[in-house]
């Protein structure tokens, strides 16, 4: 008598259409390449049109189906139109974000507004519009917001950034509860310090770099490649029962 063995769910994304914001560099670009390599057709979004078209052309030259969409997602009306015109999207990776680190006593209202407008307000309405398109089409989906380990802990000079990432974690949980009945999963990807142009601003400060290397239990700063497998996992059927939760890629930072 033969035994029926369980089968590993597929990590492939063939036939899926993915939207990746902040895709012209750093984590967003890494996520776009990872999803394309797993078989998805990827629409790359960023504000810098020249850089965006260059990386999209590089993806195409590598044999991946990709298209560029120059867009500032803080423009909510333009974002809603773009998602409606180009969707529905089976996968969202919202990697657009910024930081302006200052001591909390020195935070200016202008810096606060700039960071929260992108990291929270734009993320909220982008995620909503992608979900709206999926629900209208009667399709399931995987929506991934790039949060941070700082959505789970605090950090010196990071009160505003931490506030935005904690907010992102909260909205992800609530959206997951609301949209689960539609087969739409909503999760966050939470990296530690990653060697990107944004991350280098902190790594260039010797005392901050020493703090980072002390807190990361694996003893090294993250690389973009460290996030590419995890984002494919969250986007694919391999994580089919995961929603409303966080995948921490933090080298053990939050373990203690």
Q: Which residues form runs of ≥5 with pLDDT under 50?
A: none
CATH class placement: Alpha Beta
Q: Give the averaged pLDDT, no decimals.
A: 96
CATH superfamily assignment?
NAD(P)-binding Rossmann-like Domain
**Overall morphology:** globular
The strands making up the biggest β-sheet line up spatially as 3-2-1-4-5-6-7
Describe the structure.
- It is a single chain.
- The protein is an alpha/beta fold and 256 residues long.
- The chain has a single domain (17-194, 226-251), classed as 3-Layer(aba) Sandwich (Rossmann fold).
- It is 45% helix and 15% strand.
- Helix 1 (26-37) crosses helix 8, helix 3 runs parallel beside helix 4 and helix 4 (109-137) runs parallel beside helix 5 (159-179).
- The protein is globular and about 60 Å long.
- It starts with 16 loop residues before the first strand and ends in a 7-residue tail after the last strand.
- The mean pLDDT is 96.
In short:
45% of the residues lie in helices and 15% in strands. It has eight helices and seven strands, in the order βαβαβαβαβαβαααβ.
Feature tags:
256 residues, 8 helices, Rossmann fold, alpha/beta
């Amino acid at each position: 008598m033969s035994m029926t063995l369980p089968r590993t769910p597929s990590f492939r994304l063939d036939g899926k259409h993915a939207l990746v914001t902040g895709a012209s560099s750093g984590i967003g670009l890494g996520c776009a390449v990872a999803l394309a390599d797993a078989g998805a057709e990827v629409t790359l979004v960023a504000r810098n049109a020249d850089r965006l078209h260059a990386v999209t052309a590089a993806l195409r030259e590598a044999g991946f189906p990709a298209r560029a969409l120059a867009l500032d997602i803080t423009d909510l009306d333009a974002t809603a139109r773009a998602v409606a015109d180009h969707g529905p999207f089976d996968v969202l990776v919202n990697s657009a974000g910024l930081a302006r680190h200052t001591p909390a006593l020195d935070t200016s209202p202008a810096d606060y507004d700039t960071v929260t407008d992108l990291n929270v307000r734009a993320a909220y309405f982008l995620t909503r519009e992608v979900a709206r398109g999926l629900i209208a089409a009667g399709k399931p989906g995987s929506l991934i917001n790039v949060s941070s380990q700082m959505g789970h802990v605090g950090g010196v000079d990071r009160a505003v950034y931490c506030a935005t990432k904690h907010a992102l974690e909260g909205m992800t949980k609530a959206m997951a509860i609301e949209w689960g009945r539609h087969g739409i999963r909503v999760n966050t990807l939470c990296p530690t310090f990653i060697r990107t142009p944004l991350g280098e601003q902190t790594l260039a400060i010797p005392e901050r770099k020493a703090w980072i290397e002390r807190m990361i239990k694996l003893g090294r700063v993250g690389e973009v490649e460290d996030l590419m497998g995890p984002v494919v996992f969250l986007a694919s059927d391999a994580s089919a029962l995961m929603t409303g939760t966080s995948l921490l890629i933090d080298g053990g930072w939050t373990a203690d």
